[in-house]
Amino acid sequence: MSADTLSDLLRAVRLRGALFFYVEGTDPWVAETPRSQEILPAILPGVDHMLEFHVVARGSCWAGLAGEPPVALDEGDVVMFPQGDHHVVSSAPGLRGNGDRSFFFAPKPPQLPFSISLSQEGAATARLDGGGERTATVVCGFLGFDARPFNPLLASMPRVLRLPGLAREGRSWIGGFIRSAVEESNRKQPGGEAVLERMSEMLFVEALRTYAATLPPDAGGWLAGMRDSAVGHALSLIHQQPAEPWTLERLAEAVALSRSAFHERFVHFLGQPPMQYLTRWRMQVAAGWLRDSDAKVIEIALQVGYENETAFSRAFRRAVGESPAAWRRARRRRPTPPRSRRT
User: Fold this and answer.
1) Neighbours of 96 (CB within 10 A)
2) CA-to-CA distance for 175 and 166, rounded, in angstroms?
3) 114 lies in some domain
4) In the chain, which residues have pLDDT < 50?
5) DSSP for 21-59, written as a single string
6) Residues 118/25, Cβ–Cβ less than 8 Å
7) Of 187, 214, 241, which one is at a domain's C-terminal end?
8) 160 & 40 share domain
């Protein structure tokens, strides 16, 4: 198993890219996106949680939560709304759209990605000119992942995540990605949609790395905990070996801290004791196997550290609110055998 805990988490919560497009606006223009839960069935049906990101490829604009002061974005800036909040992107602060959600539920074009143009009148499939002189190109996309049974990353992210210059030309591969996004939108080559979905996921990972690197030393949350030498090591052990009979003492010994010091440090970053985190992570891993495999419940129970089906089912129901069998029936996917984890 890989010791890359972030990759392990993103696989477990099924990170995936979705609808991808870019906006060309001539001021005044405004794009207003409702809460992700209101449009999620149209974009990523069956997914628990969805966030939207925007990358300024050319020009400048403003972005912020609906009804709150926006932040200014320049060329190369990236902004994300990790909690899926209702938000506005516009050519100037204070503009609001018409709140029309029909665009997101309209039939998709034959091939994605596609380009739309925006004016103050709202989203349309034809170019709308606000009559001004300034133009902007904003690359937009959605990302989805599981929120249940357990996604510690979601709770550690802010409502608005602004990353200045992340996509600036010459700074990283993301500048080239943005050029490719616009080209793919215009050329519509075979496989373009899949390519951009994967690149969107890569953009999200790069954003997480950048955000984690800027967190102050005393910050809490999963990303901050991953950076900490002791807590990060403990997280790696838990993720790599969920079936191991971990105890507080064993984990503390593994990270070379006393029992009390390790407990206090883990709670500071993760907001919960290590044993509670272990149980929740086991439930997330088990939920994936229930959804994606034909393995018997007892087989999955053994894979995540339970000696019998009764104890596992009791823990699963306590964490998720329904039995393993009910979870499987509601979220059934194509059958694949569970991967065993080596200790």
Assistant:
1) 12
2) 8
3) yes
4) 1-2, 110-129, 334-343
5) EEEEEESS-EEEE--HHHHHHHHSTT-SEEEEEEEEEES
6) yes
7) 214
8) yes
Q: What is the predicted pLDDT for the residue at 185?
A: 59
* DSSP bridge partners of 52: 81, 142
Per-residue pLDDT of 306-327, as tens digits, reads: 999 999 999 999 998 999 999 9
Same domain (yes/no): 59, 114: yes
Same domain? For 179 and 254 the reply is: no
C-alpha distances (whole Å) from 288 to each of 12, 242, 300, 303, 314 are 7, 13, 10, 12, 17
| Cis omega (within 30 of 0) for bond into 107 | no
3-class DSSP assignment, residue 117: strand
Dump strand ranges (E) for 133-269: 135-145, 161-163
Residue that finishes a domain, picked among 214, 243, 266: 214
Give the separation between CA 104 and CA 41, rounded to whole angstroms.
Answer: 9
From first CA to last CA, the distance across the chain in angstroms is: 9
10 and 75 fall within a common domain: yes
Which pair of structure tokens corresponds to residue 135?
A: 């133009």
User: What is the pLDDT at residue 188?
Assistant: 62
Domain that residue 273 falls in: 224-330
Question: Is the CA virtual torsion 204, 206, 210, 212 positive or negative?
Answer: positive
Say whether both 22 and 159 belong to one domain.
yes
- How far is it, in rounded angstroms, from Cα 103 to Cα 1? 43
Number of domains, the chain: 2
